[in-house]
């Protein structure tokens, strides 16, 4: 399948969310992503070549607090606006235009801005000369989330998909709590290091749950008027996540333990 066929398989842009800032055009996202790649692979390393690494302890400290509070707020807002009451994990009738659905999509839009802000994390690695942390998994994960998030809001703002966002934000609360503890000094870092392998396990469980949830969309009984053609791309992307995270886990924890 060529790029033209993939593009033609997408439905029309959503009449509401498709007009929102950052979503209405692909150019801002492509510009930011291009700038991100240019900085982490070219401009950043060139700038840091003859400089000592920045510590950025205070910035990292407050950034982790911001991420914990932001992701916890997103989970709370999704639930407050109808998840697990009006909507559930089982396939229900699609909802695009109700006031409840629009509130959840508005929260999703703000979450999408956070995913773009997450590009900062890799830039911090560059400024701290932590090149080993800038793996293919790390970069692909950040970029693909931004790209698929844009597709979701632009073409397929199905409120049922917010379950994956609740799942992801819940995992990120745990993840950034770990990062916060690890940044609080050597003693706490040693304690936190013991649970580090479990973070990757939690992320892999997240992907498995997401795959099981999305599998409902392939059933004839589950109505997905805008998503039948797009859903396979999301499904394959999550499988890629699962494979990459498993390879990371095997390389860093299973082989090293042996």
Per-chain topology:
Blueprint: H1 3-8, H2 27-48, H3 57-80, H4 99-117, H5 119-127, H6 136-155, H7 162-182, H8 186-193, H9 196-215, H10 231-257
Helix pairs in contact: 2-5, 3-4, 3-7, 4-6, 6-10, 7-9, 9-10
Overview of the structural elements:
The protein is an all-alpha fold. The chain has helices at residues 3-8, 27-48, 57-80, 99-117, 119-127, 136-155, 162-182, 186-193, 196-215, 231-257. Helix content is 68%, strand content 0%. The longest helix is centred in the C-terminal third of the chain and has 27 residues, at 231-257. 21% of the residues are buried.
Keywords:
single chain, 258 residues, mainly alpha, 10 helices
How many helices?
10
Mean pLDDT: 89
> How would you describe the shape?
globular
What radius of gyration results from the CA coordinates?
Answer: 19 Å
Largest sheet: none
């Amino acid at each position: 399948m060529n790029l033209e066929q993939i593009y033609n398989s997408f439905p029309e842009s959503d009449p509401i969310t498709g007009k929102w800032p950052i979503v209405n055009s692909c150019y801002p996202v492509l510009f930011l992503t291009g700038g991100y790649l240019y900085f982490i692979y070219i401009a950043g390393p060139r700038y840091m070549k003859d400089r000592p690494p920045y510590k950025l302890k205070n910035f990292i400290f407050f950034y982790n607090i911001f991420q914990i509070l932001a992701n916890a707020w997103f989970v709370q807002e999704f639930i407050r606006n109808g998840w697990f009451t009006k909507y559930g994990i089982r396939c229900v009738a699609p909802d695009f235009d109700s006031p409840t659905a629009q509130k959840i999509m508005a929260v999703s839009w703000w979450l999408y801005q956070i995913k773009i802000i997450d590009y900062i994390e890799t830039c911090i690695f560059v400024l701290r000369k932590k090149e080993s942390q800038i793996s293919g998994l790390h970069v692909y994960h950040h970029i693909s989330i931004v790209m698929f998030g844009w597709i979701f809001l632009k073409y397929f703002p199905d409120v049922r998909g917010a379950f994956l966002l609740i799942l992801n934000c819940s995992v990120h609360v745990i993840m950034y709590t770990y990062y916060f503890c690890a940044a609080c000094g050597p003693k706490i870092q040693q304690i936190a290091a013991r649970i580090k392998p479990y973070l990757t396990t939690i992320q892999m469980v997240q992907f498995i749950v997401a795959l099981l949830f999305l599998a409902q969309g392939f059933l004839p009984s589950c109505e997905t008027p805008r998503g039948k053609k797009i859903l396979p791309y999301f499904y394959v992307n999550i499988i890629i996540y699962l494979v990459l995270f498993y390879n990371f886990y095997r390389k860093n924890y299973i082989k090293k333990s042996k």
